[in-house]
Amino acid sequence: PPFSQPFPASKDFSPRKFNNQDFNHLRDFCLSRGLLFEDDTFPAHISSIGPSLLSANKLSHLQWKRPTVSSPGGFQEDPHLIVDGIHRFDIVQGEIGDCWVLSALGALTLRRQFLENVLPKDQGFKHNYAGIFHFRFWHFGDWVDVVIDDQLPFLNGRYLSVQPRSRNEFWPSLLEKAYAKLRGSYQNLHWGYISDALVDFTGGVQVQFLLQKPPSDLQEIVKAAAKSQTLMGCTTPGGVTVGNVELKNGLVKGHAYTVTGATEVPYKNGWENIIRVWNPWGHGEWKGPWSDGSPQWDRIPIEYKKELCDNKDDGEFWMSCQDFAVQFSSLYICNNTPSFLDFGDRYNTPWHMAMYVNQWVRGLTAGGSNYFNGDVGIEDCHGIINNFLQFQVLKDRLPVAFFSQYKSKVLKYGFTMLTRDVTSYFFLSPGTYVVVPATSEEDQEAEFLLRIFLRSGQTCCIDPLISLAMSTLGNLSRLWGELTKST
């Protein structure tokens, strides 16, 4: 459909069944026969781990155990899905390098409206237990329900995957397994982009701020994002080759963190903007100004210190906005609408969203970023491409001849790294616009998804017949585009 909502409008929505597996049908079948579910589409086998995540020696010692099975140094005899509510501090990263998933998951625990959709309440280890669980993720334009069995990988007396702080609480491990199934294997969780997980947990739109040149109103953006109930994460500089290297300041190179809050405190003769960050390792914290026990906390009113400063080695810490921009390379903000950009809007102008699906076809629409094919019939879709994604926004309703001879544009936007989606926002004057999604090279074939979020004082019109030409009315119309592909 040309219009859709990224987040379910009601609790009665029906997500698509991943691998055509129906949770209720499978559970009822197992209960009627006294069986524990075994998932043959994601079996307790090396194929679900992946061929190169572990060494051959480790793979030979790998075991799969259900939480209901007790063993020396293993699981508890009284397992629970949730113990005393769901919190980010339930999560401790295991051997898999999926900090990008767990930092997004930590953000998810702060936003109940998203969490309750991802983690359905109709399951557990007590009532109607049959060794089967399910979780929901937003996957290429649809919500999907992913069914798993509760056999978890176990290596040398420890979880291979996420380590919950309470040894008999299993929601983090089971959710992680369901996400690994969605992505193909546990190996496919080993390194990735936090932006991907944020979108998959919310169905929302995400925007990345590069902190080498941070926006002048960074603190206001973060505070507005926290106020509007968004999910936020951030990453330190570095990549796969420098992961898990802890610096003297306590931060980890090439690591993903969760942004859990932002505020200002009276300090010296003014106000200090500070940002709260959480490490999905469950330990390891910033050691600089405004860290736990730093002298800055003794120079502010006691009521602020009591409310904000918590000297625990739980991976969460405060730091100044200036230090945050220096130490981290990127900030990611995600919500079901771009409401985190609403600060300064006195009129609470609503957002409108349109979503289109199509594909790049060689010789027809796969023109690449430096070439426009004359027959641009892009209504827009989704895909599998290892390539740089871009889009261009062009002014006015354009004739076919334009795409072969006229190169000027209003804006060109893209990332210079392999990434699954590209997002940006624009302030546009009233008029008609064309959005042209593209890859960096010609003739790259794939499906893609284009979502456009608009905020205007009047109704906006989107015409799919002219390559998403958009009529906007109002002096502060905002255009959002997101292109998504699988990695």
Automatic annotation (TrEMBL):
The active site is at C99, H255, N279. InterPro entries: Calpain_cysteine_protease, Calpain_domain_III, Calpain_III, Calpain_III_sf, Papain-like_cys_pep_sf, Pept_cys_AS, Peptidase_C2_calpain_cat. Pfam families: Calpain_III, Peptidase_C2. Gene3D superfamilies: 2.60.120.380, Cysteine proteinases. This is Calpain 13. SMART domains: calpain_III, CysPc. PROSITE patterns: CALPAIN_CAT (PS50203), THIOL_PROTEASE_CYS (PS00139). Residues 36-337 form the Calpain catalytic domain. GO terms for cellular component: cytoplasm. GO terms for molecular function: calcium-dependent cysteine-type endopeptidase activity. Belongs to the peptidase C2 family. Signal peptide: none annotated. Keywords: Hydrolase, Protease, Thiol protease. One of its GO terms (biological process) is proteolysis.
